[in-house]
Amino acid sequence: MATVNVSNQMCRPYVGDTQELELEVDTVRALINELERRFPGLGPQVEESMAVAIDGVIVQDTYLEPIGPDSEVFLIPKIAGG
Amino acid sequence: MAKIHVTTKINGEDAEFLCEPQQTMLDVLRDELSLTGSKEGCGSGDCGACSIIVDGRLVCSCLMFGAEASGAEITTIEGIANGDTLHPLQQKFLEHAALQCGFCTPGVLVASKALLDANPSPTEEQARYWLAGNLCRCTGYDKIIEAVMDAAAEMRGE
Amino acid sequence: MNYLGKDVQLKVVGTRPIRPDGVEKVNGRAAFGADVAVSGMIHAKVVRSPHAHARIKSIDTSKAEAVKGVSAVITGADLPDIPSEEAFVGEGPANFREMSHNVIARGKVLYDGHAVAAVAATSAAIAEEAARLVEVEYEVLPHVISVEEAMADGAPVLHDDMFTQGVDPKPTKASNVAKRVEFKLGDSNAAFSKADVIVERQYKTQPVHQAYIEPHACVVSYNPDGQAQIWCSSQGQFMVRAFCAKLLGMDIASIRVMPLEIGGGFGGKTLVYLEPLALALSKKSGRPVKMVMSREEVFRGSGPTSGGTINVKIGATKNGRIVAAECETILQAGAFPGSPVGPACMTAFACYDLTDVTAFGYDVVSNRPKVAAYRAPGAPISTFAVESAVDELAQNLGMDPGELRLINAAKDETKAAYGPTLKNIGFVETLEAAVASQHYTSDLGEAPKGKRRGRGIASGFWFNIGGESSGATYVNEDGTVTVVSGNPDIGGSRASMGMMAAEVLGIEVERVRTIVGDTASVGYSFLTGGSRVTFATGMAVTQSAEEVRDDLCRRAALIWEIDADAVEWRDGHAHPAGENAGKFDPLSLSDIAAKSGRTGGPIAAKSSINAQGAGPGYATHICDVEVDEETGHVAVLRYTAVQDVGKAIHPAYVEGQMQGGAVQGIGWALNEEYIYNKDGRLDNPGFLDYRVPVASDLPMIETVLIEVPNPRHPFGAKGVGEVPIVPPMAAVANAISNATGLRMPNLPMSPPHVRAALDAAKA
Ligand code: FES
Ligand code: FES
Fold first, then answer.
1. Whose C-alpha in A19, C39, C359, C395 is 20 to 30 A from the C-alpha of C334?
2. Domain boundaries along the sequence of chain C
3. Which of B132, B124, B130 is nearest to B150 (CA)?
4. Smallest CA–CA distance from C344 into chain A, residue
5. Residue-wise over C207-221: b if at least 16 C-beta within 10 A, else e?
């Protein structure tokens, strides 16, 4: 089961005080669906405004990025740059 | 107001144009003569992107009236190379990656040419002070100075 | 596939060929934003607000319209009123309604320089004269410039529909605070009890402009059939297309954007200013319209980056282990929300391996131009404060500041202060190289009388991004190759794109010519920014070259009448893969290109990807200064930038990024600032008074390239363009502190400020 950290402030309106979840998800798409199922509204929030760090690698917005069974997944704000 | 008729020599060729009395040489070059190699970065003499050589002197063309070109001999970036052969400065700028965006480059090259025309063996410090009127926001000047020094050495036959 | 192993012999990547667009840039023929002309073109100028904050009571354009030669005048009423819609753009979330209101004011002007109208005429001089005849009646309102003023009780509010986001409970009163952000790991508050030494201080930075030498410029041609063409210099032709379509209510397919050469951007050209106005004017006048900003307009009307107030507190044990850290960052957003406060907080402590850390911040609007991205947006601001504090900590502990950083440095498997666990990072390597460098270990030398010398060191972090990117590789009939990149080239990326393609194809780089495609000739690419092009678009180009290479093998197989599997590509030639494949003379790329018609048609491949996993960038800079006690002038004597670049594709352009970024940081540290008078007008909108570094201010900028490859990129590249601007301000401040014993918490450290600090210390 992947460990999904939802402690970022951008998740708070949806997850309240929940910090971490154990989720059975194998792609970013599955992660978004599962988050939306548990916390309605969080799915689009993650999809539109957040990035997902999977084992330290930041992926901004690709459904198909794999998530391993023991992956650490962190939700953070999307990054841009100059 | 009537336009002024000006005859001059630009990059070794006779040139003539009509200009408004208040029109700058930079605007004349860019708008009347289609010589857009000289750039406008400020229009106030502070960036050097518009540098040209007038009768052997380095000038900000944004601070010169077009009418002042009458009877002068002018060199712009378009006249630095010798036909198909790049000027050593141009070649060294390429080899040293002395340009990133390339917008300051025409002005820096013209100013560097004026430097080497006046002083074939500048020290690094002299080159830095000479080029202090040419702003480059991309390179940090490092590779520009390297290229100028290297071109100077090559032109001296070293 | 990747080309990372020790046994992989690279022939092109890592060398320093001349860039393909070089000659045109040294002979003056390259066309930048202001260099194009289109048949029938007219010229337009913008009317800008002289007030920092005012209600627009009326605009009378009749006198301007009556001027001979004027073909069209527009005001805010000529652009559609669009709904509030968030999108992710240059430096973070933006709102198209606000973008539209920034491009041309509606109802209120919010800063000195805010566009209120635009006039198109047969010449720029007539447009300028007519622009002066546009009569705007204002009701001047009280204004706020600094964040302190903007956050004060009873401050004039810029947007009466703006309520602070990210606070609980939701405020019921509108304010100038757009949002609060917070990042937290562990419990910093409690952890301070474990500290033997605590440093705490407030720092301030000023807004600084990207100050690209080329002012914004465009030509726009709107045709009666509803199709428009835009020629402009920007950091993204697709960005310009998308934003113009949104702001004008047009289809994306109706707009074609031709990217011209761009004379510097640094983040400042990730937005539109002129293009939507030129589009509206072209539509109204029926003529192509050219618009070019003056330098003054660039300063007054386009984005600088935020100034900020940063409160930092760091606690460490006697032996130098940081046990707790906190940082509050308040950033000016300008007239509309969207300062880079999020990344400022996330990057503040990203160099260190910490368990208990809190970073929070506020995005605050005030009557200044809306900020735009500037190299590693936000990071230099918070990092200036944190890296100054780390230096102060080292002083208090009596430790070498490099050593202190090494003790606390983030490494692989460190849980970053902003959340995720770090991988494949090269921060420790940069620190070790810096500390061991000839520069760091050299003697500072004796200062002349009346001067003092000092050395400072500071580090920095930037995420780097990937994203949607397109590239294509075409084999020409004679065996030369054309590569198309979807990204404007602001620092030599055409060279690196061509080099990666040449490496894959095994040919000399001179046989590859790379161009930047327009929006109708290459797939979508996110803009040039975030240090992403060599990484992400480089991946797309590499993939397209690999497809071409595989196709070349198939063509050779067809010619030889053997299995495609039995052909391998080596040194620019197809070879039979082994003894069993048969005996054939190798076929060169040119041989195969000559037969392309007979073997299936043109040889070409396009690749459009969404690249992920850009490796983060770390840098450590060393700076020596000499402080003149009498004048307060600070001279930089020596400067070294050490950076993890993953893999330098073209090392000279990587060095160039490091040198240019470091020097912009030196300018930020020592001189650059926006100066407003009491009426809220910008007092220094020109290069004479807004002083960027010049050649005589600087020494050579030494560079040390550390290569810890990014396994997500075929050649290991990481973004390199942004992190070099992160460490310099603290490196300079720390050097001044080392020289004088004075901590300079406020930027810029210009002669009057340094002099005042020296005098205060003496008194
Ligand atoms: S344009 Fe002439 S000096 Fe800047
Ligand atoms: S190379 Fe861009 S300004 Fe000099």
1. C359
2. 22-30+465-611, 34-142+211-301
3. B124
4. A79
5. bbbbbbbbbbbbbbb
Phi, psi of C647 (to 5 degrees): -150, 125
Tokens of C497: 């794109």
The residues near C151 (Cβ < 8 Å, ≥ 6 apart) are: C175, C176, C177, C330, C362, C364
Q: ∠C666-C668-C671 over CA atoms, to 5°?
A: 90
**Per-residue confidence band for C580, with pLDDT thresholds at 50, 70 and 90:** confident
Q: Whole-model pTM?
A: 0.97
Distance from CA of C658 to the nearest CA of B (A): 9
Arithmetic mean of pLDDT, C438-454: 97
Contact yes or no for B137/C692 (Cβ under 8 A): yes
Residue C99 and residue C243 in contact, taking contact as beta carbons nearer than 8 Å: yes
Q: Do chains C and B touch (3 or more CB pairs under 8 A)?
A: yes
- Cβ within 8 Å, pair B143-C215: no
Statement: B4-79 belongs to CATH 3.80.30.20: no
Sorted by where each begins, the domain ranges of chain B are 4-79, 88-155
Instruction: Report the CATH fold assignment for A2-77.
Output: Ubiquitin-like (UB roll) (3.10.20)
ipTM of the complex: 0.98
Confidence of residue C89 (pLDDT cuts 50, 70, 90): low
> Structurally, what CATH architecture does the domain formed by C22-30+465-611 represent?
2-Layer Sandwich (3.30)
Superfamily per CATH, domain B88-155: [2Fe-2S]-binding domain (1.10.150.120)
Q: What is the mean pLDDT of chain C?
A: 96
Domains of chain A, by residue range, sit at: 2-77
CA C225 to chain centre: 36
Interface list for A 17-76 with C (CB within 8 A)? 48-49, 53, 55-62, 65, 72, 74-76
Q: Measured between CA atoms, how close is B85 to chain C, in angstroms?
A: 11
Sign of the dihedral defined by the CA atoms of residues A63, A65, A68, A74, in that order: negative
Out of A5, A9, A60, name the one closest to residue C166 (CB): A9
Q: With CB atoms and an 8 Å threshold, state whether A80 touches C88.
A: yes
- Cα of C425 to nearest chain B Cα, Å: 26
> How confident is the model over C281-340, as pLDDT tens digits?
999 999 999 999 999 999 999 999 999 999 999 999 999 999 999 999 999 999 999 999
- Residues 535-574 (C) with a CB less than 8 A from some CB of B: none
Assign domain C34-142+211-301 one CATH number from 2.60.40.10, 3.30.70.330, 3.90.1170.50, 3.40.1360.10.
3.90.1170.50
Residue ranges of B 76-95 with Cβ closer than 8 A to chain C: 76-78, 80-81, 86, 90, 93-95
